[in-house]
Design goal:
The chain is of the alpha/beta class. About 40% of the residues lie in helices and about 25% in strands. The protein contains 10 helices and 14 strands. The protein has helices at about 5-10, 15-30, 50-65, 75-85, 100-125, 170-175, 200-210, 240-245, 255-265, 280-290, and strands spanning about 35-40, 70-75, 90-95, 95, 130-135, 140-150, 155-165, 180-185, 185-190, 195, 215-220, 235-240, 270-275, 295-300. The strands form 3 sheets. It has an 8-stranded mixed beta sheet, with helices on both faces. A hairpin with a 4-residue loop joins strand 9 (about 185-190) and strand 10. Helix 4 packs across helix 5 and helix 7 (about 200-210) runs parallel beside helix 9. The longest helix is centred in the middle third of the chain and has 23 residues, at about 100-125. The model is unreliable at about 305-310 (pLDDT under 50).
Length: about 300
């Protein structure tokens, strides 16, 4: 058998770029090994079959790579679809869903019985990892009633809540057992009612309570734009104080995401990142490549690039 010269073997090794990609991930694997990453699952990634599958692969990859992923999800499109089927009206005030008791029944059914179960199933195609729970379970999330503000006046929007306390013991126990917690954004109130919680808010509060290294928010835009709608330039990194100054000018859909990022980094979370969930494997691109995608929010005292930037 004739053996090709070493140089020719190297030229014919088409797998070499794959090895280089793996090596590029090495510093980030070292940095994030053993760290907790809270991921808010939302946007098109929740409704597109290919994106859902890719997201599940990414999360399980994080688990096998030695990170501790925790998934928090809402389910706005699915809730609206189910309400329409039942002939119930979907209405919003200041971007918040008006949640009557009848609507809350649908919210609980869809989040815990449909969206969560589907995601748990996708994750568990790769191993016995995912465990579903809600913010109600083990008093993980406790809420108080939230009001919308319209023209300076408080408006009652029903069973919509703000989180006032996190008991993270059950989530930590699952992480310690090697599981991937998948948490629906509903919470028991101090008054005994069950409240619909914005998933961005829930993910931010949980990331802070867990002392997470990273909060990742999947959405349907590339990141935070520097001058929208005049420009589509994405801000790759900004400090907490810079973000705080921008909040009053943000669109209603982006506001809770960026408020959540701000609260997270000011509560001890290492970084908060907003990613385009329409991009397959955006989670891996952000965490394990030098370039990354999206916008990263860092504490004000961080003067160096921490990696994973757009």
């Amino acid at each position: 058998m004739q053996i090709a010269p070493k140089g020719e073997q190297a030229r014919n090794n088409t797998a070499l770029p794959k090895a280089m990609t793996l090596i590029e991930a090495l510093p980030w694997l070292e940095r994030f090994h053993g760290k907790t990453v809270v991921i808010k699952f939302g946007g098109n990634a929740m409704v597109d079959e290919d994106l859902k599958s890719a997201f599940a692969q990414d999360v399980v990859f994080l688990r096998y790579a030695g990170l501790h992923p925790v998934v928090v999800h809402g389910g706005g499109p699915q809730i609206s679809a189910q309400l329409a089927k039942l002939g119930l009206e979907s209405s919003f005030t200041n971007g918040l869903r008006v949640t009557t008791p009848e609507t809350m029944d649908v919210v609980r059914m869809v989040l815990a019985g449909q969206v969560q179960r589907e995601l748990v199933g996708l994750l568990n195609e790769h191993g016995p990892f995912a465990v579903g729970m809600t913010g109600e379970d083990a008093h993980t999330m406790t809420a108080v009633k939230r009001y919308a503000v319209v023209d300076g006046e408080q408006v009652d929007i029903g069973l919509v809540g703000d989180i006032v306390n996190i008991e993270a013991g059950a989530v930590k126990a699952l992480i310690a057992d090697g599981r991937i917690p998948v948490i629906s954004s509903i919470a028991r109130g101090v008054d005994g009612h069950v409240y619909n919680i914005n998933a961005d808010t829930a993910a931010s509060a949980l990331a802070a309570a867990l002392g997470a290294e990273m909060l990742v928010v999947l959405t349907d835009v590339e990141g935070l734009y520097s001058d929208w709608p005049n420009s589509d330039d994405v801000i790759s990194q900004l400090g907490a104080s810079e973000l705080e100054k921008m909040l009053p000018e943000l669109a209603s859909g982006m506001l809770p995401k960026m408020e959540g990022c701000l609260r997270a980094v000011r509560s001890g979370v290492g970084t908060a990142r907003v990613l385009d969930g329409r991009v397959q494997h955006s989670l891996l691109l952000e965490i394990f490549t030098d370039e990354g995608i999206g916008t990263m929010v860092v504490p004000d005292d961080e003067a160096t690039v921490l990696g994973g930037l757009a």
